[in-house]
Amino acid sequence: MIRSLYTASSGILSGQRQVDNVAHNLANINTMGFKANRLDFKDLFYVNLQQNKNLDLENRRSNPGIQIGQGVMPSSITKKLTQGPIITTSNPLDLAIEGQGFFGVEVDGQLLLTRHGNFHLDENGLLVNSDGYPVIGQFNGSLINYREISIDQDGVITGINLQGEREELGVIFLFNVPNPYGLSAEGDNLFSVTENSGDANLIQSKIRQGALEGSNVDLAEQIAFLMMSQRALEASAKLVQATDEMMSQANNLRR
């Protein structure tokens, strides 16, 4: 009966982790560029209570003996990297990626990747993200003295100079890694490369100006996960209660 308490507690803790994960996803349903998390589970090691010695029987369908499982535990959290909805903003420095790839920003000399293209010009005319980190690309200098800045689908930036002529000002780089699921989430919609993700490489993908990629959180899917988690929590709690009652009755029998 003590084992059933440990098994039920593993269900309660795992259910709580799922609720926490759903809450995180739902809290970011309006966060531009956010990618939903999915929590995966695995069953724990089994205990052999009885070993069946007749292992050489033909056409046997039963397990070799009696094995009792010990519950469940979270095994991993993976990012759902599907494309989010493209939302038009009409801000010329808002950019969205259609397809694969990430924008690159430089944070303390390190390359970090993001799908959140909410960019603007700082006081020096450099293209930066909402936190002030410079966007990685090849630029011909400050953009502050140019108007009607245009960014085509290949990331090429042009603008009208003081003489009224349209001039090419640079290009925004896009990156991808061999295994995007191996990226490490750093918060603020930023990801860092890891050994599992592989190194970031330049790629060609389509950029849309005046738009942002919305969150890919599926509300109906998250509500379904929440309902399943709540039922699992209730079932595990009832199992704890039933085990406690059985232990109480067993103690009374000894009296």
UniProtKB/TrEMBL annotation:
Query: One biological process GO term for this chain?
Result: bacterial-type flagellum-dependent swarming motility
Q: Which family does it belong to?
A: Belongs to the flagella basal body rod proteins family.
Q: Does the keyword Oxidoreductase apply?
A: no
Where it sits in the cell: the answer is: Bacterial flagellum basal body
Q: Which UniProt keywords apply?
A: Bacterial flagellum, Cell projection, Cilium, Flagellum
Q: What is this protein called?
A: Flagellar basal-body rod protein FlgG
Which Pfam family, giving just one, matches this sequence?
Answer: Flg_bbr_C
Main localization is: other
Quote a single Gene Ontology cellular component term. bacterial-type flagellum basal body
Q: Does tRNA processing count among this protein's keywords? A: no
Q: Where is the Flagellar hook protein FlgE/F/G-like D1 domain?
A: 96-158
Source domain of life: Bacteria
> Domain Flagellar basal-body/hook protein C-terminal: where?
208-253
Q: Where is the Flagellar basal body rod protein N-terminal domain?
A: 5-35
